[in-house]
Design goal:
The complex is a heterotrimer of chains A (282), B (286) and C (274). Chain A has helices at 3-10, 22-53, 62-74, 77-109, 114-126, 129-140, 144-168, 172-181, 186-224, 229-238, 242-270, 272-281. Chain A has 282 residues and is mainly α. Chain A folds into 2 domains: 3-51; 60-278, MetI-like (MetI-like fold). Chain A starts with a helix and ends with a helix. Chain B is globular. In chain B, helix 3 runs parallel beside helix 6. A 10-stranded mixed β-sheet of chain C has the order 5-4-1-2-10-9-3-8-7-6, with helices on both faces. Classes of the chains: A mainly alpha (282), B mainly alpha (286), C alpha/beta (274). Chains in contact: A-B, A-C, B-C. At the A-B interface, helix 2, helix 5, helix 6, helix 7 and helix 9 of A face helix 1, helix 4, helix 5, helix 8 and helix 9 of B.
Chain lengths: 282, 286, 274
Amino acid sequence: MTTTEINRVTGPGAVRAKARGGFRGMRRRVTALALGWGFVALLLGLWEMAGRADTTALLPPFSVVATELVDLITGDALMTDIMPSLARALAGFVIGSLVGVVLGVALGWWRGLEPWCRSALEFLRAVPAPALLPLAILAFGASDTTRVGVIALGAVWPVLLNTTDGVRRVEAGYIDSARVYARGGRAELLRRVVLPAATPQIMAGLRVGLALSLIMMVISEMIASSSGLGNLILRAQRLYALDQMYAGVLLLGVLGWLLTLLFSAVERRALAWFYGLKGQDR
Amino acid sequence: MIGLSSLGPKSADAGATGQTRARRPAGTGARWAGAVARSAVGLVSLVAAYELLRLVGVLPSASAPGVPSIGSALASGLADGTLAGPLGDTAQAWALGLALATAIGLPLGVVTGLSRWADSVTGVAVEFLRPVPAVALIPVGIVVFGLQIGLQVFLVAFATVWPVLIGCRHGVRTVDPLLIDSARALGQSRARVLYRVIVPASVPAFATGLRTAAGIGVVVAVAVEIVSGSPGLGYHLNSAQQSGRVTDAFAAVLLAGLFGVAVDLAARAAENRLAGWQRHTTEGRR
Amino acid sequence: MTEQTKQAVPMKERTDHTLLEVTGLGKHFSLGTGPTTHAIGDVSLSVADGEFVAIVGPSGCGKTTLLRCLSGLLRPDQGQVRYAGEPVNRVPGDLAIVFQEYNRSLFPWLTVRRNVEFGLTDLPRAVRRERAREALERVRLEGFADHFPWQLSGGMQQRVAIARAIALHPRVLLMDEPFASVDAQTRTALEEMTASISAALGLTTLLITHDIDEAIFMADRVVVLSARPSRVVAELQVDISRPRDELAVKALPEFSELRRRIHDLIGASPAAEA
């Protein structure tokens, strides 16, 4: 076969198209977003009407809550409650994730450990993280360290277990290739092949860990703190300042949404290759 | 959609892999006993590590009681009902919340899986509501439900509807088109294709979503009880902590952990029964 | 005549020096207390420096297991493998493998270029780049260096795998049913490409395949294995001159004769298992 024939059969024309895009794809996505946002607007409108019609003052209209929300962000609460909350949540998440990844890699790498550790790990994982909070307070008192520690404890399990899983399930073919082409020892194998291959699974674990960090942050502030968003919301409920309560809840939702969005963006960059790969497998 | 990819077959809650199908060839009795023995050693080591930490002082011995005392507190609490009652309350809230979540999440998941239109409409709302931590809604729930079981059920349901919904949606979405085409080619009407092909084929994804939901449900139920004081293990734990009854507090946590283990085992068993067949097909990769 | 053969590349002189020697190889697998699978019964063969040997056999006869034992990826239970006189304990540094499933052996998080450069970390950057460029040129994928493997078709991905192998400047090339997952038209092109690369670089090549035509077309010698537990049933010399053009060669009477003989040999050996 000549060069041109080879290229016709296996050349540029054979390269699979990348993400299904183009004009039609764009239009479809825009319509979907429009429909989605339209529905949300509808729900908010219902909230507004229900709030106005409500005589028990239990449900303030959306506009009132929104105004209160803006006040929260622009007022003192930003420094006294919102930032500390975020800081605690992120600190706990980072610590828990680091510990989880390191231990997860160790557990996934040395398979011999698994049968010994399995039951103990399953039990520890099944203990609801919120339940550890009162115990931690008993043992160490209600300080920021305790709070961050419990947040980390909540985040560590999904990260650890997913990392272990990811490391263990690395495609055998990659390992074979590494044995032929990577002449270094096991450290090199780990760094160049196992970790990249396990990254999708690790990311999945990190995502759950992030959600758990937020949950633990809220709980730790509700029962063991005098500052923070969780505390603010509970305080508002007790004082029947329902506007502020709803605003706080809404703010928490928005923060959770923003963090998730941020995480997804990071994930997309780190796993661009994975999405492409899976796209082809379809 | 943002983030939904992470709840596909490679479920974010992957954890340890599920139990293997029990088709025991002869001679594995000894191997099984070996596995159990090793797990037991693992648990014993865990207990030993805890005691060691107490001894060394990392864990203050005043507020971290020894394992034997925790054990006896647990046993007596179960026997005389002081622990059994709260356990029942938590279990009840968990079960009802999960049932409610399934009742809402399953049909919604199927509908959004089948209809692109429905998916688009609900898409943004789901993406907004999903990351809201259920515990953040506790004060709202207190306002609406007071300190009764409705509070826990509502919040457990709110937290657990998402994995169920997304699991079902994913299951319906990823049914092998070849299966559908085959059924249509055999002359089945759309409705029959739906309940004879699509629904059975999406059961595994639903089962996985349910398992995730079950775990989340335990966490949320306990959390709600701790914060709000509604009846259950969490409330019992909290009151024990506040009155300094350390051993009781630890016993309550231990029981919560055991409950979590029981839930997880039951969920895995259910998943295996519902989805076991998938493991044997080429699509069984998780 | 293919274009490749017109390139003025000196052919390495073939010597009668035995490079790879296998004696009495045996390998079995057992799952705990379950039944034992005897993959390889008793295989002995030798490969001379610069030779192109194809190994054929019925499905499931342990060809892949044999390749893994030869390369050092797997330890045999009986017998020995010697490479350049030394026993094989791990994968030799100048041995490269092209695996059957390209999508499970090329790294999807690396570009084509990075994949090809993967085995060259000991070399300075400039040398690495040059070797990769040269290898990609040989497999005619120069323009795709910055693509990802999964963006390419199956045949192209396998070419990347070949490039990765030859970038190592290996002495021995092992190929495990490399073209089985590729469509028929592409397969022919890849066979010709591989044959010419092997000749141009003077590689000692061992090809595992179930495709008899492919074996005869590419090899100097065809080794026929029996069904499981496998042993060498026959070794046939392929005395067709190189360079070989696909269509011309397959029309030769010698080709049909060889094909018939090998076919009979494979069919005649009793199947231990279905």
